[in-house]
Amino acid sequence: MRHLLFALVVAQVLAGACALARNLGKVPHYGDTRAGVAGTLSPAAAPGYVRLAHDGSADSRRGLLYPVFLRLVHDAGGGPWFEGLDLEDRQRMPKHAIDCWAPAWQMRAQLLQLAVFAAALVFAGAVFTRRRLTSRWPPLLLALVYVDPVLVHAQLSLLPDGLSLSACLLFLAGFVEYTRDGKKCGLLLLLLGATLAAGLRPEKGLVLGSACALTMAGLALWRTRPPRSRFRALLATAGVFVAAAAFAGAGRWLERWTVAETVVHARIVYPRLEAIHAALPEDAQRRIPLDLARRYDTSIQEGRQVVHQATEGDAAVRRALTAELRRVALRERWLAIGIDCSIDSLRNLAATPEFLVRLATWAWHDREVAGRSADRRWESVGSWLMLSYHEPDWSLVSLVGAIAVLLVGWVLGAERVLHATRSGAWRRAPWAAVLPVAAFLAVNAAAFGFTQDLFDLRYVYPSHLAWVALGCAGAVASLQPRSPASS
C-alpha cells in the first residue's frame, strides 16, 4: 500500500509539473482580466486589471495594488499590452486550449507570482511544521501543494487572487511565528502580508483583522498561554487594522461603484428581483420593467448593467434605487436571504469538495447538469476556464491525479486524527498555530457567503489551500514509518 501511495504521489508531482510547464504563458480570459480591453462591453462594466494598469488608473472595488504590480512588471521590459487578450466574443472562442502565448511582460508577471507563492509555502512550511527542509518529506509535501492544478491556475492568471493567497499565507505564518515565539521577523512578515493582501483584494484587510481579533479572544480564554502571547496578538491585530484602514481610506477617493452597493446587489437583491418586482414602488418599477428584472436575475454582471441602464449612469439615482431595492428585498425575503448566507458560508468552508462535486456535474465546457439552471452556469466559470484556456489534457491529468492523492490523503488523515483522539494525543496539538488559521478560514468564508450569492473557488482559495494541505499532509505522513513513540 505504501509503495502504491508513493507511486501515486510521485506521479502527481510529475503531472502537475508538466501541466505547469505547458500552461506557462497561457492567460485564462476571465472577465476581470479582459473587461473593457476591446471596448465592446457596456460602460457599466468596470475595466479589467490589464486596462487599469495600461491607463494608470485604479478601481478600489478591484483593489489598488494589482494594477500597479502589472504596470511595474510591464515597464521593466516593455512589450505589447493586449496581445492574446482581445477575445471579447464568447461565441467565437475555441472549445479547447488557446495557443495564445502572452507577451514577455505577462510571462514575467506569472513567473513572479509563482516565485512568491513558492517562497510563501516554504516559509509557512518551516513555521507550521517546525522542521528544516533537510529530509525528503517536507519538500515532497510542498511540491504536492505547489503543483496543485487549481492553485497553479490561480498563479498563472492575470488576477490578484494568486498573489493575495500568497500574501495571506505569509501573514498567517508570520502571525504564528510572532505570537508563538516572539520573533520580530514574524511581525514584519505578518505586517507585509496584511498590507499586500489588503491592497490586492479590498475585503482581505477586514477579514485578516477580524481573524486576528477572534484569535486574540481565543488566546485570552486559553489561560495556559503566557500573557506576552496575548499582547503580541493585540499588537498584530492593531497593525492589520491600520493597514486595512489605510487602503480603505485611499479607496474612498477612487470609488466608482461603492462596495456597499455591490454587496446589496450581489447578495440581497440578486437573484430575486423578479420575485419582488410587484412589491417595488412605482418609480422603481418604471425604471426596471419586468423584462429587465428577469435579465437582472440571469447574472450579477447583467444585473450591474441593468442598474446602470436604469439610472442612466447617475450615481445619486443609483444610490437611491439601490436603497429602495435593499429595503424591499429584506422586507420580503429576509428569511431566505439569511438561510442562503449561512449555507453559502458553509459551502465556502468546504471549497474543495464543493468544487469537485461541481466538476463531476459539469457537462464538458458547456453546461451544468443535475437540475441546475443553464442561466447559472457561469458560477462554475473556474472549472470551465481551467479546462478550456489551459492545456485541457495536461490540466485534466493533473487534476485527476490531485483528486486521487487528496481523497487517499483525507482518508488516511482522518484515520490518524481518530487514532490521536482515542490516545489523547490531540491535547498536544499546536493549537497556537491552528487557532489563527481556523479563524481566518471561517471569517473569509463568511465574508463571501454574506456578500455575494455565488460560489467561485478563486474567491476562497485559502479554503482550498487548507483542504489541499490537509490531504497532501495525510498522504505524505502515511509514507513515513510510524514509530512506536508517535503511536
Low-confidence stretches: 37-44, 87-101, 363-379, 483-487
**Strand line-up across the major sheet:** 1-2
Give the number of DSSP strands: 2
Order of helices and strands: HHHHHHHHHHHHHHHHHHEEHHHH
How much of the sequence lies in strands comes to under 5%
Computed structural class:
mainly alpha
Count of the domains: 2
Radius of gyration: 23 Å
Distance between the termini: 19 Å
| Main beta-sheet strand count, sense and barrel state | 2 strands, antiparallel
Secondary structure tally, helices: 22
Structural features, described:
With 487 residues, this protein is an all-alpha fold. The chain folds into two domains: 2-254 and 364-479, no CATH class; 259-347. 68% of the residues lie in helices and 1% in strands. It has 22 helices and two strands. The chain has helices at residues 2-23, 31-34, 49-55, 65-77, 104-129, 137-146, 149-155, 161-181, 184-200, 204-221, 227-251, 259-269, 273-276, 282-287, 290-296, 300-311, 315-349, 351-360, 381-388, 392-423, 431-449, 461-479, and strands at residues 362-363, 367-368. It has a two-stranded antiparallel sheet. Helix 9 (184-200) runs parallel beside helix 11, helix 15 runs antiparallel to helix 16 and helix 17 (315-349) crosses helix 21 (431-449). The protein is globular. The chain starts with a helix and ends in an 8-residue tail after the last helix. The relative contact order is 0.13. Residues 37-44, 87-101, 363-379 and 483-487 have low confidence and may be disordered.
